[in-house]
Amino acid sequence: MSLIPDNTCLSQPGESKTAEDPGVIHPESQPYPQPASQQELLQEYTQLRERFQRTTNALASAAHDLKTPLAILNGYIELLQSEKLGPLNERQREVLRDMNSSGQRLQHFIQDFLTFSVLETGELKMQFEQGDMNGCLSEVCRLWSHRFQEKGLALYFLANDKLQPFPFDSAKVQRAVSNFLENAAKFTPAGGTVWLHAEAHMWERRNASKPDVSGERRRQNLAHPNSIRISVSDTGPGIPPEYHLEVFDDFFRLPTNENQSDGMGLGLAIARRLVHGMGGKIWVESEFGAGCKFSFLLPLKPSPMASTRGKSK
Question: How far apart (Å, rounded) are the C-alpha atoms in residues 141 and 158?
Answer without folding.
Answer: 10
